[in-house]
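Input (structure):
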């Protein structure tokens, strides 16, 4: 196939991916009231899953609840079309999350004709691994980081004279930043896999510069979380585990690459 033939083929896959996002966004849009009340604002209530789990074990160990959000989480609308804009943002974001496995499948359909049968078999595992990691990152951001960030923001007070009223757009930005940011960052092992496959990255390099990676992880955690230490630590811990897992993946992939080179040489 010529270069423009490949471009035309890619355009077809991208078009179907965009259609999938639109369909997912429409599904979210028709259920936006329930999603806003139960999912979007879920981490702002005391009966949220994360708070219930923490308080359950806290009552067994300490005899009392550890997390209790003070009062009602009041969100205000400052602009005329702010709720409409938030609804559109939530619909697009939700559509991307729902369509992500299909988007990855379309990407595999575009790449797979250029692969050998053995490579195609291995790529099926990688493709599934991509969307699973992305979903794990989304869940980690939603259930682990966002609730504690909100809890810290509500509890931190410098004066009792200050009334806590939160802007709808600010909360939406926080939600997208934490949840989507963790989803993207969790794709790091996939990047490590491909860089190791093409010979740019080695497990020895990752072990040698582990300390530098820790500093970089803390910087990334500070970017995707609000400006509090607790949220940054909560984000950094799974990322550190992810880095160690990436070293193991790089070592396994590097061994396979070296074995393939040896077989080709023979």
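Output (sequence):
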């Amino acid at each position: 196939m010529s270069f423009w033939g490949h471009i035309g083929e890619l355009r077809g896959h991208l078009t179907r991916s965009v259609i999938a996002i639109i369909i997912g966004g429409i599904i979210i849009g028709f259920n936006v009231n329930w999603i806003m009340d139960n999912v979007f604002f879920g981490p702002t209530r005391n009966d949220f899953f994360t708070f219930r789990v923490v308080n359950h074990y806290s009552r067994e160990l300490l005899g009392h609840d550890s997390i209790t959000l003070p009062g009602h989480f009041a969100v205000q609308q400052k602009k005329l079309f702010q709720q409409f804009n938030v609804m559109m943002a939530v619909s697009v974001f939700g559509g991307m999350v729902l369509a992500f496995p299909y988007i990855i499948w379309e990407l595999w359909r575009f790449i797979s004709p250029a692969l050998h049968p053995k490579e195609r078999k291995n790529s099926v595992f990688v493709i599934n691994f991509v969307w699973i990691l992305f979903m794990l990152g989304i869940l980690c951001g939603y259930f682990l980081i966002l609730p504690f960030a909100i809890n810290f923001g509500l509890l931190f007070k410098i004066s009792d004279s200050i009334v806590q009223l939160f802007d709808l757009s600010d909360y939406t930005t926080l939600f997208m930043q934490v949840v989507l940011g963790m989803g993207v960052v969790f794709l790091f092992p996939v990047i490590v896999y491909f860089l190791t496959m093409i010979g740019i990255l080695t497990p020895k390099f990752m072990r040698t510069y582990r300390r530098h990676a820790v500093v970089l992880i803390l910087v990334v955690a500070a970017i995707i979380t609000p400006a509090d230490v607790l949220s940054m630590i909560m984000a950094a811990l799974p990322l550190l585990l992810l880095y160690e897992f990436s070293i193991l993946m790089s070592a396994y992939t590097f061994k396979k690459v070296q074995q393939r080179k040896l077989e080709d040489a023979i």
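Notes: The beta strands are 75-76, 166-167. Residues 1-65+73-184 form one domain.
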